[in-house]
Amino acid sequence: MSECVIPTLTSNEVVASKSVLPAGWKPDLTDLKALDLTLPMLELLRRSTSRLPQDVIDALVKGRDAEEEGSRAFNTLNDMVRNIILADGHVTPLCQDTGTIIVWVRHPYGLSQRAAKQQVRAAVAEATKRSWLRPNCVEALSGKNTGTNMDPFHEGHPAVHFEEWDKPEVQIAVMQKGGGCENVGAQYRLPDAALGAGRDIKGVRKCIIDAVVKAQGQGCSPGILGVAIGGDRVTSYEKSKELILRKLGTSNPDPKMDAFEKEITNDLNTLGIGPMGYGGNTTVLGVMAEEMYRHPASFYVSISYMCWSSRRGSITLKTNGEVSFD
Amino acid sequence: MIRLTTPITEDQIRQLKVGDEVLLNGRVVLSRDMGHKYMKEQKPEWLKPILENMVIYHCGPVVKKHEDGHYSFVAAGPTTSIREEPYQADVIETYKVRGVIGKGGMGKKTSEGLQKTGAVYLHATGGAGSLLAERCKRVVDVKMLEEFGSPEAFWIIEVEDFPLVVTMDSHGGSLHEIVAQQSQERAKALMA
Questions:
Q1: Locate the Fe-S hydro-lyase tartrate dehydratase beta-type catalytic domain: which residues (chain B) (predicted)?
Q2: What does the pLDDT average to over B169-192?
Q3: Is the CB of residue B140 less than 8 Å away from at least one CB of chain A?
Q4: How many CB atoms lie within 10 A of CB B116?
């Protein structure tokens, strides 16, 4: 049980050979009105649901190797690596909770957001039909499952964000965020008397420690935290989620925040919660923090907790017809 | 490593202690939020022979329906158990359930239920949906599929060498409580 499992994934060539995109498919961005995002979106979901980003795998392996061999924490991280290999090999969901589907579409001027939203929805419905996604969209009060991952009012789920940008290319990013980790997210309003947390970086730090201790193993630790400082209740939470799209091991462009991220990550890993809350040295894989602007009277700290199975990815369609995944 | 096969006797359960690693075999019944609310509020008789001396698994699987009509599990890891805290102890007592599989652990009320009836809480690795689905060998039956939808239905399955850790035993022990306490103390020191 305790040998180190080496996370060897299938090659990019094999992944490409299973693509739902026709061989040699090239997007034509000269006519954005005719561009159909359904298949690129479907292919993105096929990958995100079954194949964990390399930076997340590296962080899990690094965590495992820092645990005592044969310990519960070590074995659990090893099982996580085994699971990553299996899901990738079978092209099946890494986790049965394929999450809330959150999508960011970035596009040049001229793309119809209404049409793009319908295409994203069609892809999510098709991925659900193919058992790549679990039907995770239920009516709030009755709990009735629509079975398709669609809410019938064309909003809500999947959550699709749009941004018009200066680049000529179209990019779709996706995050599959499980319910367990979503439930342990938290929003604080500073000052917080109970925590003794004031309106400064020390106060922010206390909020983060408090949220992680409250979460224990319930968000499927080791987790990845997105921390937004400032904003209003909505923009703050939204930013905290978007931050989780950043790759682990990359630096925060703000040197002060970068130092803060590294320090708080080390502190959190001394809490002893460990993988799945079994105890151990690997409680978080990383923290991504960003400072925003705020109303003078409000000071929110919003923390989104992502489980170890941080399923995210993007597809970029370029003007020369190139398609790239990240 | 302890091998257990369902149905399980109270005597077998009383021997298990926090920290024991278990490989479970035999029949297991899936149930989560809607199922637990239904079991506590309506106490359906028809579930009694299905659940007596059996193990409940908190899981909403991704299921594939094959062309000939049979089902198989594609991804089937545990869901967060604490949501069933208001119901679990009653369900264990009403149906004489011997084990509950989930993740994250459960609270005081459930712990008391485990002690009273003679049952344990078994922790599975959250997120290991692919790995655990491989150990779910056969879907025997499914109940309330229409009413609850696929993630919430009572799936009755057979598992083989399903890897688990006893994190709450029938003597009041809880690994979750120990880890929570230690981490709270450490947090206090970090915030000082």
A1: 2-177
A2: 97
A3: no
A4: 12
